[in-house]
Design a protein that fits this description.
Number of domains: 2
Radius of gyration: 23 Å
Strand content: 5-15%
CATH architecture of the largest domain: Up-down Bundle
Strand order of the largest sheet: 2-1-3-4
Structural class: alpha+beta
CATH class of the largest domain: Mainly Alpha
Shape: elongated
Length: about 350
């Protein structure tokens, strides 16, 4: 798969079949998840592995019930926490609908306190966020499938997997004691997504020297494999290692993203202006600017310009969908150029 030219028809056919099966499976999983989780409330638990309350957000379920940071949870609905494991593994019997409650008993500096936490609707205040994220995700998936089915290029295959990887992290139905495994899988898929973006820009429109370097490739994938090992350790030694390696996946996503941007800039600098249009790099640059500039403006408005409300700024990040679309157009242009040359 390191070639920059067209791949054979049988290999391409297998990739296309896999993509179709994956899309159908992911869609079914997401639909079941929507109906399965829609009637359950959210309790905003932020516990340490030893069930000490790490944080009780103001106005949320724990704080509203009178619990404080540092309280040590003894039992939930009369079940000792030693029998429950971490909250991501709570049994289905402890799930509640919005407005229903759970009884928690805690120890606060030697005093035993009991109170009911009333679960809130998880969709409250998140509808716009979920809608925006879904639009961006669909842009990646759609652009990847468009490139895969409209070209015979290996870059089209790569772009398809860039779209399918975050889609595979979509939450599905509640799995009870296995829900923690699903959460870890989602983390692995999101990190893999940024890794594949990096690899795409190392290999498009032509493979760069570092993209051919085995040591560099081993380091890129090695970081992700280290993450997989840490996620497995968290699951095996649960809850002792739970949340221990959380900063690692954020760091990896940041590093992969920074190097992906560096690879894109490097390609733009090294590609003669006369070839930028034919290679598709000018299209990707246009898409990147169209996606990133509105998003940066929205973030600056949200984080620093508290007294200024830019109309519609909360929807500006939807422009990120221009990035995968521009990548798909570039792949099609580059594939057309290869076919002409061949």
């Amino acid at each position: 798969m390191s070639s920059d030219k067209s791949i054979d028809k049988m290999t391409l056919f297998r990739h296309r079949v896999f993509a179709i099966v994956a899309v159908v499976a992911i869609t079914a999983w997401a639909i079941v998840g929507v109906f399965d989780r829609s009637g359950w409330g959210r309790y905003d638990p932020l516990f340490q592995p030893d069930y000490t309350i790490l944080h009780a957000p103001e106005g949320r379920t724990l704080e509203s019930a009178g619990f404080q940071q540092g309280d040590s949870v003894i039992s939930v609905e009369g079940i000792p926490v030693e029998e429950l494991g971490m909250y991501s593994r709570w049994p289905r019997s402890l799930r509640r609908k919005p407005g229903e409650s759970l009884t928690l008993v805690v120890d606060r500096e030697g005093q035993t306190l009991s109170a009911d936490i009333v679960l809130r609707d998880p969709r409250a205040g998140n509808n716009n966020l979920l809608l925006g994220g879904s639009v961006i995700l669909l842009a990646f998936v759609g652009a990847g499938l468009w490139a895969l089915f409209s070209t015979g290029s290996i870059h089209g295959v790569r772009l398809a997997y860039i779209g399918l990887t975050p889609a595979a992290a979509i939450p599905g139905p509640y799995l009870g004691g296995w829900d923690g495994v699903a959460m870890h899988f989602q983390v692995a898929m999101f990190v893999l997504w940024t890794l594949l973006l990096l690899r795409f820009f190392l290999l498009f429109p032509q493979t760069k020297r570092i993209g051919q370097n085995r040591v560099a490739t081993a380091l890129i994938f090695g970081g992700w494999l280290v993450l997989i090992v840490t996620l497995i350790l968290e699951l095996i030694f649960h809850p002792r290692f739970y949340h221990t390696f959380g900063p690692l996946y954020g760091l990896l996503m940041f590093v992969y993203s920074v190097f992906a941007v560096a690879a894109l800039i490097h390609t733009l600098i090294k590609t003669p202006k006369g070839q930028q249009r034919e290679s598709g790099m000018r299209i990707i640059l246009t898409g990147a600017m169209a996606g990133l500039i509105p998003t940066i403006v929205a973030e600056v408005d949200r984080m620093f310009l508290w007294n200024i409300d830019i109309p519609g700024s909360s929807w500006f990040p939807l422009a990120l969908g221009a990035i995968p679309i521009s990548m798909a157009i570039a792949v099609r242009r580059q594939a057309g150029g290869l076919q002409t040359a061949l």
